[in-house]
């Protein structure tokens, strides 16, 4: 640690995220610095910053450790405040939060859940924030790289993170207009390039492509009447200005809420079908919500190697339902279905192909084939945004060392996803209700129309090839 850093005051700043928004707290007169200004959960790092972040969350919001989950921590931010004559080192954190119910301590007198871009001048309301708040958020905000590397969360979760990436960039571009003026062509190119890299980040996840495409398509569609009605170059320039950062900012914000609502409605529709004994695997937040809202008497959960996310799913279900929960190896799925009285298999989907076949975590195909052999219905729970517009599929593979890290000259296979054929799927339960696999092609046609926003700018491939390393 440098002498300058040892003289600085170390503090933590913890952003709590719920439904794509973060918690801002207004500092009261009871605090010694920055009274009346808005910030995240914060406090002096008296011990280890990681431990202090959770302590401050409990003290300032009343939330228990189980109410929040750490997403990531970021590189510390060092800065000096000449007005206070102090140097600060801020340790930023991001937590996902399951509730918006906050019990304020005396350190704050108000709170709001807002899009992070609301902390930027010229974007949000006239809300004075503590120094370097946006910088702290950027250190922990989702990025193309974090989405590409995430092997813990499902496709629906990551699609919302992708929308947040575009929203945050659009908000920053809107804020920069105050200093540099509008640059609609530059904004449009930058946002198209960013969208292109997101579309290629997780090629097996159609929901990410569809939701990013919808946000960009709606941003363009919102101003088409203005463009059509524009008379003269000046009016046309004004229309073009409105098709860039401001329209994308508004569209991504509304589409985050739309995406969350679609996933919730799909879970609600599936919950009506869940009763008796259920078998599942992997981690799908939509399936988890459906199982919690349904009336299962027993739940069998395959462990889902190699990451074994099924163990965490089983633990959560044991805490959240009255059902008896059993966990078993992936290799035992056929045995469990043959020997136990299972009424229904319920799984999620990363992608539903136009022919109704389902791409999901490896092991889904084996489970569905075994279910077909036993005459057990298979319900796939997925919002319609998970329908792919493409016939082909790019199946990702995981780290070979998760399967074998020895020295023998072995080929190692660690497929992350497999494809369950249509004839092994009974129904696909969506926000529109239960659909027969044969109905999926029509939805794919609807989603293909969303890709047309790219006709007016760089294609996905052009945007990615132009600067593939940029994050």
UniProtKB/TrEMBL annotation:
Annotated stretches, region: Disordered: 223-247
Nudix hydrolase domain location: 7-142
Top-rank taxon: Archaea
Pfam families for the chain: IF-2B (PF01008), NUDIX (PF00293)
One example GO MF annotation: translation initiation factor activity
Family recorded in the similarity comment: Belongs to the eIF-2B alpha/beta/delta subunits family.
Name of the protein: Translation initiation factor 2B subunit, eIF-2B alpha/beta/delta family
Record organism: Natrinema salifodinae
Lineage: Archaea, Methanobacteriati, Methanobacteriota, Stenosarchaea group, Halobacteria
